[in-house]
Amino acid sequence: GAGAVGLAIAERLARTRSVLLVERHEGYGRETSSHNSGVVHAAIYYETGSLKHRLCWEGNPLIYEWAEAHNVPVRRCGKLIVALAEDERAGLDEVWGQATANGVRGIERLTGEQARALEPHVPTVEAIWSPSTGVVDPASLVRSYEGEARAHGALVVYRHAVTSVERIAGGFRLDLRDADGQSSSVTCAALVNSAGHGAPDLAAALGYPLDGGMHEGVEVPVLRQRANGGRYYDIVDPDVARMVSRPVYPLPEHQAGGLGLHLTVDTDGGAHLGPSTEWLPDGAPLDYRQVDEPEWHARFLEAGRRFLPGLRGDQIAPGQVGYRPKIQRPDQGLVDFLIWHDRGYVHLGGIESPGLTASLPIARVVDEALG
Ligand SMILES: Cc1cc2nc3c(=O)[nH]c(=O)nc-3n(C[C@H](O)[C@H](O)[C@H](O)COP(=O)(O)OP(=O)(O)OC[C@H]3O[C@@H](n4cnc5c(N)ncnc54)[C@H](O)[C@@H]3O)c2cc1C
């Protein structure tokens, strides 16, 4: 798939291998990779030693380097994690403990006064300052990966869906169907399943059980994913958007499946509230349109007013909606990325946030797994 992760992998593998990347859409980054916060994360929240921690930590400086070398808009603006009420200070301690255990670069505790010097309109009581966090333009990042993958010789094929996969002697056979309904097939020595929300279907086609178990004498981890929607509301009044200049996060809500409804400022200075955390029923279609529902409008306004107390209802409007591909079940806490390798097959599962930040190190791990 031609998401950020699939293309980063193609770019990496094409340096030494012959690579074919197959994507069902008309172009790159049409799903999760273009519907996200675009934050270059600093590895604050994840369990120490997990893939999310290590690959995000490694990816953070690499994204800045890559972006600067490839004219991808990026801002090293830092981010604030804020306590907005006295009773939130303890939650900040918890985040601080994890962040220091994770060796996050340059983090500091700020008093309310120090935090308000950075973001004067946000009524912060106390904060954590993460100077290595920033924002990148996801579409430009993905485009640059695609350009470099092609420059290394990768063949990128759009408008072709992989409909079936089979293990054959010496590799795999993929059945493809193009946008005109024509069928074809290709064979390959190794297969990287970086299909985001489509990954479990392809694994199932190979015969792997999705809920863990044995297959051909190999122990298979849980591959089943659930989609968790994250909708945004944009701050559409430019004067209000200009009142913040960097991402401002509340305390995280790991159990709900996200980092808390935050305020993000993109590389163009646009300000966005989100993302929500909404579990979708199994098999529900991913609808990228968002309509203005009064209930959500009210919820976002309430959340937005915690950051910007004077915010009015007519200053926000529905923005994008993205879907987290989660291995985590609704009743679980944070679950790690899955990068699983079985005899020439590499499965990427649960590549939710911080997948954009970790995309280059994920590509390195896949390259090493293939030997
Ligand atoms: C709301 C939200 C906010 C986020 N915020 C951040 C953030 O601030 N910072 C960060 O680092 N990360 C963030 N992320 C995570 C990041 O966006 C993802 O980890 C990353 O984009 C995943 O890229 P991918 O290539 O794995 O998946 P995708 O972008 O989904 O790409 C997979 C591709 O595979 C294709 N595909 C699937 N099945 C088939 C098939 N059968 N045949 C052909 N093609 C197929 C799809 O069409 C798709 O293009 C966020 C995610 C969400 C949902």
Describe the structure.
The chain has about 375 residues and is of the alpha+beta class. It has nine helices and 22 strands. It is globular, with a radius of gyration of 21 Å. The two termini are about 20 Å apart. The mean pLDDT is about 95. It binds flavin-adenine dinucleotide. Flavin-adenine dinucleotide binds next to helix 1, strand 9 and strand 20.
The span between the termini is 21 Å
Write the CATH fold name of the largest domain: FAD/NAD(P)-binding domain
What oligomerization state is this entry in?
single chain
- Tell me the radius of gyration: 21 Å
Number of helices: 9
Taking the sheet with the most strands, its summary is: 5 strands, antiparallel
The total strand number stands at 22
How many structural domains can be distinguished in the coordinates? 2
CATH superfamily of the largest domain: FAD/NAD(P)-binding domain
Overall mean confidence score, pLDDT: 96
CATH class of the largest domain: Alpha Beta
| Low-confidence parts | none
Estimate percent helicity: 25-40%
What gross morphology would you assign? globular
Q: Which ligands are bound? A: flavin-adenine dinucleotide
Structural class: alpha+beta
Quote the beta fraction.
25-35%
CATH architectural category of the largest domain: 3-Layer(bba) Sandwich
Write the layout of secondary structure elements.
Elements: H1 4-13, E1 20-22, E2 39-40, H2 51-69, E3 74-75, E4 79-83, H3 89-101, E5 108-111, H4 112-118, E6 126-130, E7 134-136, H5 138-151, E8 155-157, E9 160-168, E10 171-178, E11 183-188, E12 191-193, H6 199-205, E13 211-215, E14 218-222, E15 226-235, H7 238-241, E16 248-249, E17 262-265, E18 271-274, E19 278-279, H8 294-307, E20 316-326, E21 338-342, E22 345-349, H9 359-370
Parallel strand pairs: 1-8, 4-16, 12-22
Antiparallel strand pairs: 2-7, 3-7, 4-6, 5-6, 9-10, 10-11, 13-14, 15-18, 15-19, 15-20, 17-18, 21-22
Helix pairs in contact: 1-5, 1-9, 2-9
